[in-house]
Specification:
Structural class: mainly alpha
Number of domains: 1
Distance between the termini: 47 Å
Strand content: under 5%
Radius of gyration: 22 Å
Order of helices and strands: HHHHHH
Largest sheet: none
Oligomer: single chain
Number of helices: 6
Number of strands: 0
Length: 155
Amino acid sequence: MGELDLSQIVAIGLSQAKWLGLALLSAGVLVRLAGKALGHMLFFGAVLAAAGLAYHEWQVLHSLLVSGGIVLGAVVVFGLLAWVVRGISFLFGFVLVAAGFYLLAYGWMGPSFANTTTGALVWAGATIATMIATGLKGSLLRHAPAAALGAGLLR
């Protein structure tokens, strides 16, 4: 068996563009949702742990300044950390979703559609609509029709 070079890998990827696009799209949505969940778990877990530590320090020192400082410090530090985690997951999710929708457009309509103004607008609109739908408050299932409509899957 010979070695694969980059042009062969790209050719294989473009021949299976629809399936690769679906896989990247799914991975992007999952990364976005997992980042949101991880950010929430990180923040609330840290605040609960800080509240327990603050309660213990309150029993020992009876100092509102120390106990309040522990909780306030945890809220600030882990709030920023959760925000960074969500931002990084948004970035990775956006890149995966954008690549997935481009490959879907390429696989279904071909390069003549994917490289036109209409194709670029469909690609950008579907990417933005999907990222908005995954960022909405509440259940994704409640907003799935809006995401499908934005992606052009419903008529």
